[in-house]
Amino acid sequence: MLPIVRRSKAAPVLPDLPLDQAVYDHLYDSMMAGRLRPGDRLAEAQLCEVFKVSRTVVRKALHRLAEQRLVNIVVNKGATVASPSPQEALEVFEARRAVEAAIVRRLAHGIGRSDVERLRLRLSAEHSALAQHDHARWVALAGDFHLTLAQMAGNGVLQRMLAELSTRCSLIVALYETPGNAQCEHHEHERLVDLLELRDADGAVALMDQHLRALQGRLAIPDAA
After folding, report:
1. pLDDT digits over 182-221, tens only?
2. pLDDT of residue 6
3. How far is it, in rounded angstroms, from Cα 152 to Cα 144?
4. How many Å apart are CA 107 and CA 152, to the nearest integer?
5. What is the pLDDT of residue 5?
6. What is the pLDDT of residues 67-94, one digit of tens each?
7. Please, is 1 exposed, middle or buried when counting C-beta atoms within 10 Å of its C-beta (0-12, 13-18, 19+)?
8. Number of C-alpha atoms within 13 angstroms, CB side, residue 201?
């Protein structure tokens, strides 16, 4: 199933990039925005028609997504958007708590005035999106907030790990969310910036752990046992 096809009969406008990169970016963005959901089928023939590209291009894009575990490819059956199991969902959140704890601890020890100002601007953008009831924009900003913390922390390995975990979390949220209940809390982001500004590493770590556990708790993840 391809929800992006039903929006328009015209091919999506691909940016001036290598074709497989452009297709990859479009499918990735569609997954992160919830237009493609876990379990949706990604038929090669339909993708070729939608994007006006060859099967070789489509396969390159799908294999890149499969390497990131965002797509499952089964021989003779084709590709589908990944559907993380309950056990995997719990493991992803456990790993994310560990990675983000390391990130905020590192950042708390080295954060500067310009970093705090940058984070305050991002919080202002989040608040504006909420006030305008622009849910899609707010979700994107809330997710980027965590990646911005990783970038500021200055550890490339932690940043790459969080980027991968965040994409997995997006699929997990899409699969197990309960209506209106499965997103970051804006006020928790504000409190976290306050603690970082005070260079309270222990407080920031504790709040991040609480923040991610609360997000997990708002998901209807079945008992993995």
Report:
1. 567 778 999 999 999 999 999 999 999 999 999 999 999 9
2. 38
3. 12
4. 7
5. 42
6. 999 999 998 889 999 999 999 999 999 9
7. middle
8. 11
d(C-alpha 201, C-alpha 199), whole Å? 6
Q: What is the spatial distance between Cα 225 and Cα 66, in angstroms, rounded to a whole number?
A: 26
pLDDT tens per residue, range 158-182:
999 999 999 999 899 989 987 655 5
Beta carbons within 10 angstroms of residue 55's beta carbon: 11
Distances (CA, A) of 121 to 17, 125, 132, 145, 159: 31, 6, 17, 11, 21
Encoded amino acid at 76, one letter:
N
Q: What is the mean pLDDT of residues 12-21?
A: 72
Strand pairing partners for 15? none
Any idea which residue has 């790459």 for tokens? 160
- Please report, as a single letter, which amino acid is at residue 182: A
149 contact partners, CB below 8 Å, separation of at least 6: 100, 103, 104, 107, 119
The HSE-up count of residue 108 (CA atoms within 13 Å, CB side) is: 22
Strand partners, 42: 79
| pLDDT computed for residue 50 by the predictor | 93
Contact 211, 184 (CB under 8 A): yes
**Six-digit token string for 133:** 């009831």
pTM of the model as a whole: 0.82
